[in-house]
Specification:
Chain lengths: 240, 277
């Protein structure tokens, strides 16, 4: 899939949001607002909203779990790739550092959300640790282009995955509005977080393509294998 | 407590495989949306609370339930509300004692004016809460062996184990543990085992070992398929499971540490030799 196609796909929910009547969506750059909401669960508790439906709670539970597992994997992929890559290509040092720092930020965001909302981590946590480290190390051993193709494949899947979550969250909030319940800050904040992180993942995808991801040997087969692995891992960690 | 109910689990299992409904846990705790409805409605609460006061004298029995219903101003017939009989009474004790832990923690924090308890680490709080929960059994400790036997009945064991898991989860959460890596599981599993074995010692109980209790959910399924005489295969299966628990329990943390350590040092040695790895 081309980057432009993915971009278009990524922006579709945004258009929907703008067109959706009756919902005042917060500005996308509401990191400040969200961090204050995060810090004050008590303030929010003053006006309790209707209980979340069972299926919504189940969705939020598995969504947070799979996101944490994914970001854990992302940090480990970059951690394994970086020393190998920058020895051969020192100019990549700042890019790798930048992407790793963002992944580490995503990971700690989801760690905090899991702890706050009492969501269990994936039972296969050590498996994801091993698999991600291996993926990072092996693609970096294959060279710069293959390492970038790995990022390209992973971020394509993750971008689609986060888009799917944003769509489901929108659906959930729309139903809440329809039932006259009002949407909690908690859910809005989660939606903003997922959108912001999705945009950063798509930046990584751009960086990978700019750095010759498409020139990797066996690019097609390499990326489809990695994307298949990502799909499977997402499917499993939503459940286990 | 009629002892026959404890001694014939095998027969009960073959005639009616009735599982207590397992609640699917409590996913995604919200701070803005209202949480779960209280676990017991007003009638249940009134009857079970009164019945629990009868337990020291009359045990975890249907008699206590009847007395409790009468004391709470209901007809004897109200007891029909509790199809699981004495297990409903045990369950009420387990759930309410678990939910009382938060208050106990808050009270301890308020009592200690210097604020030193609040500043204590997770470990101290886990110890405090576990002890607090154990001590909540004191008024009925001479009846606890009955309760354990009821919990170990085939139809109730899955609910009992789920409740033990919820207790363990509650203690780690109240203690302020924010760990969400693989230690999430080991912490909860080990606390469950520690808790159930300590409780057993406290009751001087000869009931099934906690590991056996933890395993019997699986064991039941196996047993329903078992064609061998005297369930010999089931017994062997149990032995193997217990052995697995022992091996995994003692080995896993060391194995991971070992692998991490050797992998790192191996890679570092190779890198120091100029291998591009
Ligand atoms: Fe990420
Ligand atoms: Fe990423």
């Amino acid at each position: 899939m081309s980057v432009t196609m993915l971009r278009r796909r990524a922006s579709r929910p945004l258009v929907q949001e703008l067109l959706a009547p009756g919902i005042s969506w917060p500005q996308r750059s509401c990191r400040r607002a969200s961090s204050t909401a995060d810090a004050q669960p008590d303030a929010a508790a003053r006006s309790p909203k209707a209980p979340l439906r069972r299926e919504d709670r189940d969705f939020l539970d598995s969504a947070l779990r799979v996101n944490q597992a994914g970001e854990l994997a992302a940090t480990l992929i970059y951690k394994a790739q970086t020393p190998l890559l920058i020895r051969a290509h020192p100019h990549l040092s700042s890019l790798m550092r930048h992407m790793y720092d963002q992944e580490a930020g995503h990971f700690s965001t989801f760690n905090a959300l899991l702890a706050k909302h009492r969501v269990r981590p994936s039972a296969l946590y050590p498996v994801w640790q091993l698999a991600a480290t291996f993926l990072g190390w092996s693609t970096a051993m294959m060279g710069r282009e293959a390492a970038m193709a790995c990022t390209e494949a992973v971020e394509t899947e993750i971008g689609e995955h986060y888009n799917g979550q944003v769509r489901q969250l929108l659906e959930m909030t729309r139903e809440m509005e329809a039932r006259g319940e009002g949407v909690s800050e908690e859910i809005r904040h989660l939606m903003d977080t997922v959108r912001r992180i999705r945009d950063e993942e798509l930046e990584h995808l751009d960086h990978a393509v700019e750095n010759d991801a498409k020139k990797a040997n066996g690019h097609e087969i390499l990326t489809s294998v990695i994307r298949g692995g990502c799909k499977t891992a997402i499917w499993i960690s939503e459940r286990v | 407590m009629p002892i026959t109910r404890v001694c014939t689990p095998r027969l009960r299992l073959l005639t009616s495989v009735r599982y207590c409904p397992i609640s699917r846990g409590r996913p995604y705790h919200s701070y803005e949306h209202e949480s779960d409805p209280p676990p017991f409605n007003a009638t249940e609460e009134a009857v079970l609370a009164a019945a629990l006061r009868q337990v020291p004298e009359h045990g975890f029995t249907d008699a206590s339930l009847s007395l409790g219903a009468r004391e709470a101003g209901y007809l004897d017939i109200t007891v029909n509300l509790f199809p699981r009989g004495s297990f409903d009474l045990v369950n009420y004790h387990l759930v309410t004692r678990r939910l009382a832990l938060k208050k106990a923690l808050d009270a301890q924090a308020a009592k200690d004016d210097g604020g030193s308890f609040k500043g204590q680490g997770v470990g101290t709080k886990v110890k405090f809460l576990t002890l607090e929960r154990l001590m909540a059994n004191r008024p009925i400790i001479h009846r606890w062996q009955e309760a354990l036997a009821i919990m170990a009945q085939p139809s109730c064991i899955s609910t009992s184990i789920a409740e033990l898991a919820r207790l363990s989860d509650e203690i780690w959460i109240l203690a302020g543990d924010a760990g969400v890596d693989s230690s999430w599981y080991t912490k909860r599993a080990s606390l469950s085992v520690i808790y159930s074995s300590t409780g057993e010692n406290l009751a001087h109980c000869t009931a099934p070992k906690p590991e056996a209790m933890l395993m019997s959910g699986l064991l039941e399924l196996f047993m329903t398929q078992d064609q061998s005489t005297d369930f010999a295969d089931t017994q062997k299966f149990l032995d193997r499971r217990l052995e697995d628990v022992r091996i995994v329990g003692s080995g896993i943390s060391n194995l991971k540490g070992y692998l991490d350590f050797t992998a790192h040092s191996f890679i570092n040695v190779l890198r120091s030799k100029g291998v591009r790895i």
